[in-house]
Every structure is written in C-alpha cells, then in structure tokens.
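FYI - complex with adenosine-5'-triphosphate, inputs then prediction.
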Amino acid sequence: MADAVLELEGLTKRYPKLVALDGVSLRIEAGEIFALLGPNGAGKTTLIGAVCGLVKPTSGLIRLFGAAETGSTVAARYQLGLVPQEINFDPFFTVRECLRIQQGYYGRQPDEARIDEVLGALKLAEKADAPTRALSGGMKRRLLVAKALVHRPRLVFLDEPTAGVDVELRRDLWQYVRKLRAEGTTIVLTTHYLEEAEELADRVGVIDHGKLLLVEPKAALLSRLGERRLTVRLSSALAELPEGARLEGAVLEDGGTRVVYRERRGEKSSAEVLGALYAAKLPIAEVETASSSLEEVMMRVLREGGAAR
Ligand SMILES: Nc1ncnc2c1ncn2[C@@H]1O[C@H](COP(=O)(O)OP(=O)(O)OP(=O)(O)O)[C@@H](O)[C@H]1O
Ligand SMILES: [Mg+2]
C-alpha cells in the first residue's frame, strides 16, 4: 500500500445545533487525486478546515505525513496548500506581493522564480503588479490557486477551485493539477462539477450530513453503480418484443421504435445483446451505447445513502 499523507480517525465536529462531521475515518495516499464529493452543507469544507487547523475538531485524530505524533502540527501545516472556497486575500497588495507574503507565512525563503512559474502556469503573469482588487472574479480564483501552490506543498486541498472559472481556464487548471500530481503532489479536491471529478480523480469519497458514505476508486465506483445502456433504433415500429428479444433489462420505448437495454454489472456484452436482437429479426436501424456518468452514480449514492456501499 502506498504511504498515507493524511489519516483521519473518527473525526467529529459538533456545532451547538448540528454535527458537521460525524466520525469520519479516511486515508489519503501519497500521490493520488482524491475527490471529496457531497451536497451543500455535507461537511467538505469543515473536513478540510480541520486538517488545515482552521476548525477545531470536537474529537477524533488527524495524522499528517505519517508523523508519529498525532494532530495537525505547525511543521506539518507548512507542507499543506489550501485553495479556500472563499476569497481571502488583502485587496491592497499586488498579486506578486500577495504570493511573496504567502511564501513567508509558510516559512520559505523568498523565491521569485517560483512565483513567476506559478503566475505563468495560472496565466496571471500579466497581472503580477496589479492590486488584487483589480482582478476579475475568475482571476481572483486563479490567484487563490497560485497562493496555495507557491510554497511547494506536499498535500494540496482544492475546495471548489473552479467555481466561476471559464471553460478554457478550467481545462488549463485540470492540466496543471495533473502535472502537480505527476511531480508527486497529493491532491484533495471538492467540486460540484462532477465532470471535473470524473476527469481528474483516482478515488472518490462521498460525504453527506457529516458522514462518509463511501470511498472507492473512481473506475470501480462507476462500474459497480453505473449503468450501461444500449439503444437500438428500429426502422419500423413493433407492438411488442418478439420472443427471442425479450432479454432481461430490454424494454421497448418510444411507440415501439426503439429497444433500450439497461444493465448494471456487465452481464452481457453489447455484441451478445445485439446478436440476440438480430437473431430475433428486429429491424435494426441504428445502435448507440452509453454509460452512466459520475453525476448519475453520485445521485444514486445520495438517494440510497449508505445502502449503496
Ligand atoms: N461556524 C459554524 N457554526 C455553525 N455551523 C457551521 C459552521 N460552519 C459550518 N457549519 C455547518 O456545518 C455544515 C457543513 O458545512 P460545510 O461548509 O463543511 O459544508 P460543505 O460540504 O463544504 O458545503 P458546500 O458544498 O456548500 O461548500 C453545514 O450545515 C454548515 O452550516
Ligand atoms: Mg464547502
């Protein structure tokens, strides 16, 4: 098993009127991209805040970088990067000053070359000397990402890094996140854009009402809870499916003009299904296959709660 960069055991955060984190145990492995997904108010930002020392847990353990001592110590926190959900920089500093200050906060020597590298990667070089208040919303978000990375952290939390970011930049950011991972950085990402998680994540955790409902490699989750669909358009309408075409999971839809075959666990290959429909002499005109997206799978997990495990 790879080394753990972060281990949580029974992490709980109680507020007077609600439990924001309810006994969360989780292990984040070195070098992975982990997507923490869940609806508004699920506890994602609270979990990140607890690890980064911004939220005081009520109980439970946080172990960073396999350190023997438990807790999120200052030395360990120097190796964390956080892209917070809310914009949090001083509007009167310039972009470059803001990054210099960040390096200082994290106990690093000034490193202008690193600042230029990060500004370049996030397409902010032109704005290096602009006051941060003069940035557009998307640029502010990019600066948050730059700030989180300028001190070369080992573990980075991206709390909805692409909210309000345009499509092109979102793709640039994805590419940059992959590059970071290739360099050995571990990444924990929260996002409401599930295609983003689908694109980037190695593993997915789903949290709701402070409880971690499941943790699973993305590909395994998609094949376990996803559905495969094979849609066959017919050149003439049928009143009902002929005997040989009555496969389990096959239904006639759209006024008898298409057969939709749905299945969960890859019991039959598309070729087998098509073979059966062909042998039953269905007037096949066109065939289409599709698989569930992470979004569909997530909706199912949230609907069924822990039962989807
Ligand atoms: N300081 C606080 N006092 C009381 N309740 C709080 C506090 N901070 C957060 N909460 C509550 O804790 C719960 C979890 O909030 P959290 O910000 O972790 O959710 P989230 O999963 O990040 O949601 P979102 O997707 O909207 O960002 C919410 O019900 C929230 O209202
Ligand atoms: Mg949040």
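Residues 167-182 form the longest helix (16 residues). The chain has a mean pLDDT of 89.
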